[in-house]
Amino acid sequence: MANPKGFMLIRRKEAGYRPLNERVYDYGEVEQTLDDKDRIDQAARCMDCGIPFCHWGCPLGSIVPEWQDQVYQGNWKEAYHILHSTNPFPEFTGRVCPAPCEKSCVLAIHEETVTIRENEASTVEHAFNLGIVKHRIPKVRTGKKVAVVGSGPAGLAAADLLNQAGHEVTVFEKNSAIGGLLRYGIPDFKLNKGVIDRRLLIFQAEGIRFHIGITVGVDISADELLARYDAVILATGAGQPRDLTVEGRELQGVHYAMDFLTQQNKRIAGEIIPEKINITAKSKRVLVIGGGDTGSDCVGTAIRQKANSVTQIEILPQPAENRAGNNPWPYWPDTLRTSSSHLEGCDRRWGLSTKRFTGENGHIKKVELVGVEWGVDEAGRPVMTEIPGSSQTISADLVLLAMGFTQPVHNGLLDALGVKYDPRGNVQVNARKQTSVEKVFACGDIEAGASLVVRAIEAGKIASAQVDEFLSL
User: Fold this and answer.
1) Cα 122 from Cα 259, distance rounded (Å)
2) R_g over Cα of the chain
3) Top CATH class, 145-239+406-472
4) Pairing assessment for the beta strands 382-386 and 363-376 based on DSSP bridges
5) Under a CB-based contact definition with an 8 Å cutoff, are residues 428 and 422 in contact?
6) Domain spans of the chain?
7) Which helix (H) or strand (E) holds 193?
8) Orientation of helix 257-268 relative to helix 293-304, angle to 10°
9) pTM confidence score
10) Does the structural domain 243-403 have CATH classification 3.90.550.10?
11) Is the CB of residue 63 less than 8 Å from the CB of residue 55?
């Protein structure tokens, strides 16, 4: 194990963020790094618990104590190999994961958890810098062909492992670059896209084929896909955003959050956004509806685009600063989360429901809100009621709907394949991630609903194992 007394002698130390008055003027990653001595000290705080709840809390089953010990010893090569044995993309999760492992760390009882996520990011960066991360070309090919539709974290994880199993893997992506949500949904100030490209070069050297700008179901029919490949994995995510069906929704200036975020990522990549569809926050009063991570990303992006003001509202009540009695460790804490974007200048408000949008000359100008409170009905289900006399109106020139996603887009490939859907509208799969169409599998948000990158990666791992077994029958 690491230093047996490390957790008592060394306090938790976070790398922190770049200075606020510097980072809001660019799209570089906001998080800083610690030097090697500090990072090794932080790894020394891991107690190597008899029951590693961090391992339990991680959807990927990261063997945390073991690779923390190797970091403590300065053995970056072994630390990376242990980390990579469960996680194909620690460079992604080390940057964007909310770290459920840390929330379940035994030291979290005293709010001094090990900096697992930051240690993870440091480990993989050392591995790349030292030339430890190398391509692994499969020695034997099975002759079986697999199509992966969608190149987000679930699709890439599945493609990686199936390729390592010796199958010929082709990944289809409708956009002009590989990465899915990682490339187009997460701002560059959280995940530099060069991090994705670095991993893709390895995949290409290992034999994975990537076809970009291809919409499967349009450019390649469902029947052709099934005829050309021995198995198909659907990993296109939950692409149907939750809408707000209120009066004035049709006004110009009301947009889905992901459209706004995707455009900015494309601009940074050098793509030209046609003026007629251009969405910008510059010199505007911005209202972000939705208090989650996507909403936070909108806040940080709007600030960098030089918005006049940014307000973020959430329909739920403000979370508590500390765990409630019915939310004990080691479960995920339902507490207030403040991102780097919130610290950059945002008015956050809770318990507000949107009643209507009003505008001038077809463009959004005002948003009417009402305060709400929450209770439960006789069946224990949450019930929302409006607070009398709490109606208010705020000014807004740009409204971004960041209320999550409801289901995958059915129209097109999914309907053409004839896959069944579950009651929530997701693609229905069995325990093997297999759909109602025998040779078609699905993994990630498309079958489980919108969730974390780390859960999508794990779903891709499970699907790859099941497809490998299916192809071996």
Assistant:
1) 32
2) 23
3) alpha beta
4) antiparallel
5) yes
6) 6-129, 145-239+406-472, 243-403
7) helix 193-206
8) 50
9) 0.96
10) no
11) yes
